[in-house]
User: Which sequence fits this backbone?
């Protein structure tokens, strides 16, 4: 029922395949995006987990950085997990100046905030607006959100352990970000939530309107 | 999640270890011997660096016993870059692995490039919070390493040669053996497990899914952007480059070119563009010219 929605996954580096198959399981048309022309053909974008500095670098080198930024500002729905959350942040701490984020969400994100790989962990996280049991959240050298601006809405926090209370899921209008990786667990609820967000967002409706369909 | 402490964070799980490798996919991991080289690798877009004392080409040229790197060197690299830092231990040297874990290394390579410390046993990798990557020349070897707890596999190739032929052999062999398993009737998987010298459960899983349960990278002899792209087309999920970068004429430019060719591995126009004007590639040795006892790929059992 979502086959009329085309959702791209930024495929410069990272766990692209896991996002593509999660979206396909939600019955959306999922496509890898590596070129500006491929970006033009999608209604929404997922920025996968990976190395944020590598993804930013390749986006700049292959002429995708400005087009993505423009689409984000123009209202394209975007979901980012982990590295994707970093790349959607207005401000990144412990990043590199020459590897800027696309921005879009009014938040300050700290890269590798939980520590090194030996500190990577699994823990339950509840998300506001998504029903059912808490997510079995997988954090891998993950960022956390230090602070959100008035526009951004906190959807989830770590509930236990040393990092209890840290913000790990945020939404601002058409933009969604999680510090953890739902694509690794087979739990489709975040992707379903995002597909629904895409469906309800204007961009798709606008195209329908343009084509004279009401 | 542990039953004793429901809701408490769990570190070092198989999912977290294997998941880390998933995040490296489509990327290039570069061998570095100094913090300066690590910086060049990060600037070029590497997804991680591999800290070691000497690159394989020098180990080969200089001979002697090669061991884990100096902790000071590893710490200086960790302090210099923000991308993940990997480091190598000798096959079977479980104390070198304990040291690297204590240093906060993000991934350990139990590597045939260093001189083995145990000619019978590999490290019991389940005992560690830090994940391990191991080399393999065939599917049976890969599955034995996964049984011991490896969370990532790389095909071995022949390190330090700049000769990609063994990397292609090993990648084709692993992929071919996986494909064969998927075509076998279920009642033949028992014998397949015996022949592969790997646990039946794991063999059955590979036969059902058509892939390894962990990420598969390539390594050993990759020296050019086209080498990296070919290995990706052959089914590698990412690339380790050892001597190929810092034994070449223009490391920074070559490193960036290999990164781009790995992302656009199926686009000859991009590969052609990034391959221009790279200067001298590493000199290289033909694997056939290396006497069998000196071939690193033979190490590991």
Assistant:
């Amino acid at each position: 029922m979502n086959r009329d929605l085309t959702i791209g996954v930024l495929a410069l580096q990272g766990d692209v395949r896991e996002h593509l198959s999660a979206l396909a399981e939600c019955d959306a048309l999922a496509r890898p995006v590596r070129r500006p022309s491929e970006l033009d053909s999608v209604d929404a974008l997922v920025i996968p987990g990976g190395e944020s500095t590598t993804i930013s670098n390749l986006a700049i080198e292959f002429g995708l950085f400005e087009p993505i930024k423009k689409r984000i500002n123009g209202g394209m729905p975007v979901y980012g997990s982990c590295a994707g959350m970093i790349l959607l942040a207005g401000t990144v701490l412990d990043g590199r100046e020459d590897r800027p984020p696309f921005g879009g969400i009014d938040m300050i994100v700290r890269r590798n905030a939980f520590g090194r790989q030996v500190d990577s962990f699994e823990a339950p996280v509840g998300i506001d607006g998504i029903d059912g049991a808490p997510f079995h959240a997988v954090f891998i050298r993950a960022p956390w959100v230090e602070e959100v601006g008035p526009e951004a809405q906190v959807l989830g926090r770590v509930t236990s352990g040393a990092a209890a209370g840290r913000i790990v899921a945020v939404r601002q209008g058409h933009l969604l970000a999680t510090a953890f990786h739902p694509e690794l667990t087979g739990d489709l609820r975040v992707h379903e939530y995002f597909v629904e967000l895409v469906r309800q967002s204007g961009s798709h409706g606008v195209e329908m309107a343009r084509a004279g369909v009401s | 999640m542990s039953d004793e402490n429901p809701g408490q964070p769990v570190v070092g799980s198989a999912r977290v270890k294997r998941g880390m490798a998933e995040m490296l996919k489509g990327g290039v991991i570069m061998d570095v011997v100094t913090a300066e080289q690590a910086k060049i690798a990060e600037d070029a877009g590497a997804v991680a660096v591999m800290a070691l004392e000497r690159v394989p080409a020098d180990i080969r040229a200089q001979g002697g016993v090669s061991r884990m790197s100096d902790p000071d060197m590893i710490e200086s690299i960790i302090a210099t870059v923000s991308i993940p830092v990997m480091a190598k231990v000798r096959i079977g040297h479980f104390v070198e692995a304990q040291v690297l874990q204590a240093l906060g290394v993000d991934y350990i390579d139990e590597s045939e490039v260093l001189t083995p410390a145990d000619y019978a046993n590999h490290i019991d990798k389940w005992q560690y919070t830090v994940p391990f990557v191991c080399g393999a020349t065939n599917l049976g070897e890969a599955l034995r390493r996964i049984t011991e707890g490896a969370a990532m596999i790389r095909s071995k190739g022949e390190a330090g040669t700049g000769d990609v032929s063994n990397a292609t052999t090993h990648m084709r062999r692993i992929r071919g053996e996986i494909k064969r398993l998927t075509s076998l009737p279920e009642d033949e998987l028992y014998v397949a497990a015996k022949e592969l010298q790997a646990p039946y459960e794991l063999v059955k899983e590979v036969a059902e899914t058509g892939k390894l349960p962990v990420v598969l990278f390539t390594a050993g002899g990759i020296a050019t952007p086209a080498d990296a792209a070919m290995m990706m087309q052959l089914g590698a999920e990412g690339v380790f480059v050892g001597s190929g970068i810092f034994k070449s004429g223009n490391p920074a430019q070559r490193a960036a070119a290999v990164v781009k060719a790995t992302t656009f591995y199926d686009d000859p126009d991009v590969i052609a563009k990034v391959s221009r004007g790279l200067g001298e590639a590493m000199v290289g040795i033909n694997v056939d010219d290396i006497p069998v006892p000196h071939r690193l790929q033979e190490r590991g059992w």
